[in-house]
Amino acid sequence: MAAPKTRGAVTQLEEDGGRSRSEVGGGGYEDSKDCILEPLSLPESPGGTTTLEGSPSVPCIFCEEHFPVAEQDKLLKHMIIEHKFVIADVKLVADFQRYILYWKKRFTEQPITDFCSVIRINSTAPFEEQENYFLLCDVLPEDRILREELQKQRLKEILEQQQQERNDTSFHGICMFCNEEFLGNRSVLLNHMAREHAFNIGLPDNIVNCNEFLCTLQKKLDNLQCLYCEKTFRDKNTLKDHMRKKQHRRINPKNREYDRFYVINYLELGKSWEEVQLEDDRELLDHQEDDWSDWEEHPASAVCLFCEKQAEIIEKLYVHMEDAHEFDLLKIKSELGLTFYQQVKLVNFIRRQVHQCRCYGCHVKFKSKADLRTHMEEAKHTSLLPERKTWDQLEYYFPTYENDTLLCTLSDSESDLTAEEQNENVPIIGEDTSKLHALKQSSILNQLLLQ
């Protein structure tokens, strides 16, 4: 007997979810065969569940055992051991609870062998020692269609949840790095952590179930666990220093726990964001053309050391810092004779002081960056750099902001040096004075004396 098609099965479940048992199952099989996902037609058991929505447990397909939704592996293990039943690629099932309820219904209507492949183990042993296992997989068209339907339904629910979060203005959250509170839309907190702490978990519009995501990250930090390498440390200060110095203020992309918080992982059945990204890359390679005449490079903007001013052309940013803040980075580089790496350390030092709202000229700390900026401009402390030993330290090799474009624009070429500085950098090789008489005969000074 051929298995009936399941197109629209999930929709049918939503429509029929409120009917009573007598309405759906009372008229015999012919009246109820279209309601193939109707959970109210399943046998009830003490402590079990009769409705899908809000159900805290999932029943075994073959018996009256129930398992919590969060303990999916226990149910799978139970069905393998007790019923010799295996579900292939179960991790690709979008809604495990609906999937199980569907097949529990179908197996009461037709023999299991109509749907499953039979795998015999111990085939060389005596007949009484041989065992048959049943494999359910998406090679069966009905199973494939069911998985696709569940995926579409899950995607619909995720997109609705995402839209609700986009429009929600009642969000209240606390930054996990500086404990600053944020009200309004979730994007305000996410953008703050990316801008102020170089902690970027992605564009707000690409994230779903944001509250749960933030709680998951906060719980890891509370447990003194690094979000990137996931090592555990003895105290919060050690953890903070580790994440800052190792540039681990990001999540581990290989941790599949985070996949459910990104919409891209719901777009295609059985594909993660990495697989989708690889497909996009291959498509670009397949359509490559030799003509690059229309290529347009969009340079990243560099940010001022003291305010939020940005500029794609670095010379404009230098002019802004000189005019608005009386800070001439090129002049400081020239006067102090700074190498490229010394410039890097100076920029990272200033970034850190400004981030901490501390004036590096007088060491006074302020409540906000705006107060600090006003003080430094009025007191003319922007150009009042501390002694070189204060900022020329190894710790300032590490960028304060991971995406600090200004560091990429610093110059180490000799063309920026004055003529005097270039001459100072020319190595002087001493002449061999062991043969003084011969040196006098060949010296260029003889020609100068003749002139």
In a nutshell, what does this entry contain?
InterPro entries: ZN622/Rei1/Reh1_Znf-C2H2 (IPR041661), ZNF277 (IPR040048), Znf_C2H2_sf (IPR036236), Znf_C2H2_type (IPR013087). By secondary structure, this protein is mainly alpha-helical. It has helices spanning 9-16, 21-25, 29-32, 72-83, 96-106, 141-167, 186-197, 210-222, 236-245, 273-286, 314-325, 329-336, 340-355, 369-378, 388-391, 406-409, 419-424, 436-442, 445-450, and strands at 57-59, 66-68, 85-87, 117-121, 131-136, 171-174, 181-184, 302-303, 310-311.
Question: Describe it for me?
Answer:
Helix content is 42%, strand content 7%. The protein has 451 residues and is mainly α. The chain has a three-stranded mixed beta sheet. Strands 1-2 form a two-stranded antiparallel ribbon. It has a two-stranded antiparallel ribbon with strand order 6-7. The radius of gyration is 34 Å and the shape is elongated. The relative contact order is 0.05. Residues 1-33 are annotated as: Disordered.
